[in-house]
Amino acid sequence: MKINKLLVMVLTVLLMAISGSVIASENIDKAVKACAACHGANGVSNNGQWPNLAGQKEQYLISQINAFRNGSRSDALMNASVQGLSDKQVAAIARYFSSLKREQNVPGDLALEGLNVRARCVSCHGMKGRTVNTEWPNLAGQKYEYVKKQLMDFKSGARKSPIMEVIANELNDEQIAAVADHYSKL
Ligand code: HEC
Ligand code: HEC
Questions:
Q1: CA dihedral angle for residue 71, residue 35, residue 64, residue 155, rounded to 10 degrees
Q2: Which residues sit with their C-beta closer than 6 Å to ligand 2?
Q3: Is 165 exposed, middle or buried (0-12, 13-18, 19+ CB in 10 A)?
Q4: Separation of alpha carbons 25 and 78, rounded Å
Q5: 95 Cα: distance to centroid of ligand 1 (angstroms)
Q6: How far is the CA of 44 from the centre of ligand 1 (A)?
Q7: 64-84 b/e with 16+ CB inside 10 Å = b?
Q8: Domains in the chain: ranges and CATH
Q9: Which residues of 123-134 are buried (b: 16+ CB within 10 A; e: fewer)?
Q10: How far apart are CA 32 and CA 164, in angstroms?
Q11: pTM for the model
């Protein structure tokens, strides 16, 4: 009798856990599909203004989604896209996109100008555009147009980051274009 009761309890808890996780993953499926409309089903977008998310650092993705949620980073398309998400969904979505492999971009020659500028970036973004810090973004294989716009936004203060605002301010337009070209080809 005692054992039966225990068995029923264990089964009930198990069933609750299973159905709970199915509902959770369905919610994420729906959300991920919405993100994929712009960021690509495999996390690689086909628009130069929309960043690739595949293989991006999990913690960095969480911090950026939260920045769009609370308005400290603003973009008309993004602020609306993340409003309905819960913290749990944000964590699961970040884990999902971070786990995807970023496809190799079309290889191209790395120009000297870009190599020179990126010397200022390697201490944080890594020798090959991949960082060891979970809060800092990988830049390798990111979209040219997107990287250029982010550097311009840091420079104008439209996007806030105490570190990056200082660094972007020291770059002129040619250097920004050159370093964006460099990272887009890694
Ligand atoms: C209608 C198009 C669109 C949709 C849908 C969309 N995004 Fe975005 N996303 C953008 C654009 C455009 C940017 C770049 C904004 C900027 O220039 O700062 C962006 C930027 C981001 C960034 C910042 C990446 C980085 O490297 O800093 C993250 C993270 C992100 N989106 C996640 C999501 C998630 C998660 C969803 C789904 C819940 C989503 N996006 C849905 C267009 C979209
Ligand atoms: C001292 C460390 C440091 C250095 C050096 C540095 N960065 Fe960053 N970078 C960061 C951090 C931290 C962020 C994330 C900022 C945030 O939270 O929005 C970032 C973000 C970026 C982003 C936005 C990426 C995205 O996905 O939206 C770009 C682009 C970027 N850095 C380019 C550069 C370039 C180019 C250089 C060299 C000229 C450089 N960074 C040097 C720390 C650094």
A1: -80
A2: 51, 117, 120-121, 123-125, 136-137, 139, 142, 147, 150-151, 161, 163-164, 167, 179
A3: middle
A4: 22
A5: 15
A6: 12
A7: bbbbbbeeebeeeebeebbee
A8: 2-184 (1.10.760.10)
A9: eebbeebbbeee
A10: 29
A11: 0.90
CA distances from 24 to 70, 95, 134 (A): 23, 14, 25
Q: Is 152 in the pocket of ligand 1 (CB under 6 A)?
A: no
Name the residue with the closest Cα to ligand 2, atom 27. 150
Element at 25 (helix H, strand E): helix 2-39
Helix (H, G, I), strand (E, B) or coil at 44: coil
pLDDT tens by residue, the chain, 186 residues: 566 666 666 655 554 454 444 445 557 888 899 999 999 999 999 999 999 999 999 999 999 999 999 999 999 999 999 999 999 999 999 999 999 988 766 678 889 999 999 999 999 999 999 999 989 999 999 999 999 999 999 999 999 999 999 999 999 999 999 999 999 999
